[in-house]
Amino acid sequence: MMVNALNNFKKYVPIYLRLALGFTFLSAVADRFGLWGPPGTANVAWGNFQNFLSYTATLNPYLPTDLIPLLGWFVTAGEIGLGLALIFGFRTRWAALLSGFLLFTFILGITLSNSIKGALDYSVFTASAGAFMLALWHTEGIKTNNTANQ
């Protein structure tokens, strides 16, 4: 009975993961455009794009200052595109794989500029691993029936 319940649940896991990753990307973008509130509001990380660019500069101190806005816009476009692709299930394998790599670059930036604790506290490792798992799920065609456990 438990195996059947898990097998029924298993088919919904990739959808849940797609939506969780996709909406997380879009939420971060919404924050940097002030849609969750202005800077200083509870639970708002940036509140505007300038604060986001300052944070981007903090995570990438080795880059010339002139490249920070380009990087900020590139990451923002990537998060919007990947977020929407994941939510709508468009080219899921590629969207998930690119999401995993994008999130891994965030891990590197946070870890090298601050500490590994920040990447752990913000669950970036978990999100990156989940994105890679989603890519594998769609690559390997993980079975969702009883034969997968036999």
UniProtKB/TrEMBL annotation:
Keywords: Membrane, Transmembrane, Transmembrane helix. The chain crosses the membrane at residues 67-87, 94-113. Pfam families: MauE. Its main location: membrane. Signal peptide: none annotated. It is a multi-pass membrane protein. It is found in: Membrane. Residues 11-112 form the Methylamine utilisation protein MauE domain. This is DoxX family membrane protein. It comes from Fodinibius salsisoli.
